[in-house]
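Students often ask why inverse folding is considered easier than folding. One informal answer: many sequences map to the same fold, so there is more than one right answer. In these notes we will look at a single instance of the problem. The structure comes first.
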């Protein structure tokens, strides 16, 4: 039911009011989206890169956001305006005690217990009140604007587009502008100044509300009786917000796991997600929404065919575009329906409360539940299907026999089950099966106006395609943890006698983390990045007469290939953050490097930097840093403070080696600048095999030492081409205060 605006309200068309409230919402969203990565950088050196840390932070942010929306709802529904303003301003004043942003002095996380409770306490003390104030701003100020008696007060939802514009600008500006130009200390200072400006703006909004609300508008509001939204309507809001929230996180995981692990790739889905809110809560939604509903159905056919049924050999960015477009259409349909069904302003805060609750549920489902119930990123296709189920259907409710439309899905499932049971060599019919799935994907287009049938039929097609491809990939084992999806696969190579030979590979998403040949004579031969002709083989060969009793630390385990360079009197200590990697490397059914070669080794499962701080000083002869081959680089392991820590644990003539093979980042820049700044000797080898040998691959390694004499054997080696590090002058040294991934793009 629309509110009839009284004449006094209609006469108030001041743009200054809109500008004031819109600016306040913009600044609030900007500060919120900057605060999260900013405080993450503050925590990183203390707690490392464990996903338990980031999951705890995410729960804190989502819970506090929901709490802020609940507060705004309770405040505006339960208190008169004369009490709302002083109470909220009191909370704002109280929040200034948390400024400037910083952790309490001399604070350290517990080392003998789970730090989650400590982290929640630190988050609450350090940023709890400011983040709470930020989380209340959007629903509260929109509710206040609805009471202003402005000509647009009857529909203040367009202000939500302004809020999301602020979020979008913050999202894009932090990694590309703020992080590359400002150190952490300056970021904290400027953020505190921005927060002060925001609080002044909120105070001005409160003052304008108290001075400008017309009496007849208040009376009209009191007289207006609006029917409360039904339980069905509120549940519809919940699902329309939950599915895009889950789909956002699902797509982000999917593209980094199954398409490419490219730095900052997560920004693209989140940008599209925020952009959808800007569009649907603008004046364009009524005209664009029917168009997106039609486009979604048309695009679904090629999307299912090329993304799931029959992926062609195309560049990863083509698949990225395909998935992002499908994601855009899906969330535009859901968010467009959500905007269309927004309630009267009397229920504005309830609407936003349900939206925030749905967003929190989506985050928790993907972060905590999905990794335990799925061994792959299956929540992503599941939410694609759920988005199809939420398509509007004017005629659906009038169909008496709508359940009959589910018959095609059931029939397709039955046929697939019969084929699986009765056909022995199902993969012999691989092409025929894919052609059949493509045909039914085209047929499914006819059901686009019947959401239940359309979604279920599409779901069966997608999951049958995923099942067929899983059978063809020869995956021996696949499991998922908070760190991602790990898979052991069996592949075939042509050996030295040009005969086919099986071998095992370890994958983390799309990144290979090791391989092993299975024959007894070759099973202890390190391969891929650690091959004997490569830099690591050269290092251990050149120092063979000196390293008989070395103590060696290895950060990053992979399949365990490095262990097969060990000597009987040496002591090796591995540091690995993912327990599942340790389980796989120690399972002889998959890889036997560790069981055959690592009898004199210890294992620590934790963040490497935090673990090394506990080791005695000057205890290692060689430290091997092998944590950077994936494109999700743990930056806290590459700062100047980290380098100083490593050398404090090395003996006087110890060697620090970095594996920097990376598809997208030139990590040698960071190490070269550190070597120059800290006056360290450093050599690099960008190894390319001279002749083709099975599982001997190109790889890049850097070695560093306190004195050049320590590296003379490698510098003069005839086994490989070790060179001095090139000099770079186009970036600052990385520290715990400053890192900049963008400057490393190849």
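Output (designed amino acids):
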């Amino acid at each position: 039911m629309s509110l009839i605006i009284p004449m006094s309200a209609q006469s108030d068309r001041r743009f200054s009011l809109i500008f004031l409230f819109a600016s306040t919402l913009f600044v609030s969203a900007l500060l919120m989206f900057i605060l999260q990565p900013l405080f993450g950088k503050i925590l990183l050196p203390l707690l490392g890169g464990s996903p338990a840390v980031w999951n705890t932070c995410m729960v804190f942010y989502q819970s506090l956001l929901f709490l802020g929306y609940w507060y705004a709802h309770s405040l505006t529904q339960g208190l008169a305006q004369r009490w709302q303003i002083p109470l909220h301003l009191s909370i704002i004043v109280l929040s200034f005690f948390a400024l400037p942003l910083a952790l309490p002095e001399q604070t350290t996380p517990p080392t003998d217990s789970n730090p989650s409770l400590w982290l929640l306490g630190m988050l609450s003390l350090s940023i709890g009140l400011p983040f709470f104030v930020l989380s209340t701003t959007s629903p509260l100020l929109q509710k206040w604007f609805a009471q202003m008696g402005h000509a647009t007060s009857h529909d203040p939802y367009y202000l939500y587009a302004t809020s999301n514009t602020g979020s979008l600008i913050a999202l894009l500006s932090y990694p590309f502008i703020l992080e590359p130009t400002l150190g952490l200390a300056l970021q904290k200072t400027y953020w505190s100044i921005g927060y002060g400006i925001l609080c002044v703006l909120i105070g001005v909004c409160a003052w304008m509300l108290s001075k400008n609300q017309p009496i007849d508008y208040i009376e009209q509001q009191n007289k207006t009786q609006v029917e409360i939204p039904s339980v069905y309507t509120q549940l519809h809001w919940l699902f329309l917000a939950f599915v895009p929230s889950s789909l956002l996180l699902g797509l982000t995981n999917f593209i980094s796991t199954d398409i490419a692990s490219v730095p900052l790739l997560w920004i693209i889905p989140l940008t599209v997600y925020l952009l959808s809110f800007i569009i649907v809560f603008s004046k364009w939604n009524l005209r664009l929404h029917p168009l997106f509903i039609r486009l979604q159905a048309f695009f679904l056919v090629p999307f299912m065919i090329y993304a799931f049924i029959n992926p062609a050999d195309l560049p990863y960015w083509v698949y990225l575009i395909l998935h992002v477009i499908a994601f855009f259409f899906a969330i535009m349909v859901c968010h467009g329906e959500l905007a269309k069904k927004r309630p009267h302003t009397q229920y504005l805060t309830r609407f936003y409360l349900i939206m925030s609750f749905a967003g929190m549920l989506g985050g928790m489902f993907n972060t905590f539940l999905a990794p335990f119930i799925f061994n792959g990123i299956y929540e992503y296709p599941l939410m694609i299907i759920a988005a199809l189920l939420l398509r509007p259907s004017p005629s659906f409710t009038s169909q008496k026999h709508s359940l009959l439309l589910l018959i095609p899905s059931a029939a397709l499932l039955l046929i697939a089950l019969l084929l699986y049971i009765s056909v022995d060599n199902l993969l012999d019919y691989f092409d025929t099966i894919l052609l059949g799935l493509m045909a039914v994907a085209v047929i499914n287009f006819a059901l686009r106006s019947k959401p239940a049938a359309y979604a279920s039929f599409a779901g069966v097609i997608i999951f049958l395609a995923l099942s067929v491809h899983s059978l063809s990939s020869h995956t021996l084992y696949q499991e998922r943890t908070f760190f991602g999806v790990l898979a052991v696969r069996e592949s075939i190579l042509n050996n030295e006698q040009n005969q086919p030979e099986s071998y095992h590979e370890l994958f983390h998403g799309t990144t290979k983390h090791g391989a092993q040949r299975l024959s007894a004579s070759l099973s202890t031969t390190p391969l891929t990045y650690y091959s004997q002709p490569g830099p690591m083989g050269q290092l251990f060969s050149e120092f063979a007469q000196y390293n008989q009793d070395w103590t060696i630390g290895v950060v990053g385990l992979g399949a365990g290939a490095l262990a097969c360079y060990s000597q009987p009197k040496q002591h090796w200590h591995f540091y690995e953050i993912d327990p599942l990697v340790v389980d796989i490397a120690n399972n002889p059914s998959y890889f036997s490097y560790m069981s055959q070669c690592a009898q004199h080794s210890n294992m620590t499962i934790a963040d490497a930097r935090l673990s090394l701080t506990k080791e005695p000083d000057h205890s290692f002869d060689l430290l091997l840093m092998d944590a950077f081959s994936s494109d999700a680089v743990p930056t806290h392991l590459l700062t100047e403070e980290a380098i100083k820590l490593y050398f404090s644990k090395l003996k006087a003539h110890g060697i620090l080696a970095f594996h920097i093979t990376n598809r997208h980042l030139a990590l040698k820049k960071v190490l070269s600048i550190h070597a120059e700044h800290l006056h360290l000797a450093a050599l690099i080898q960008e190894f390319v095999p001279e002749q083709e040998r099975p599982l001997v691959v190109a790889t890049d390694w850097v070695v560093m030492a306190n004195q050049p004499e320590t590296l003379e054997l490698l510098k003069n080696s005839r086994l490989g081409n070790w060179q001095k590090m090139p000099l770079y002058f186009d970036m600052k040294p990385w520290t715990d205060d400053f890192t900049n991934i963008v400057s490393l793009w190849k």
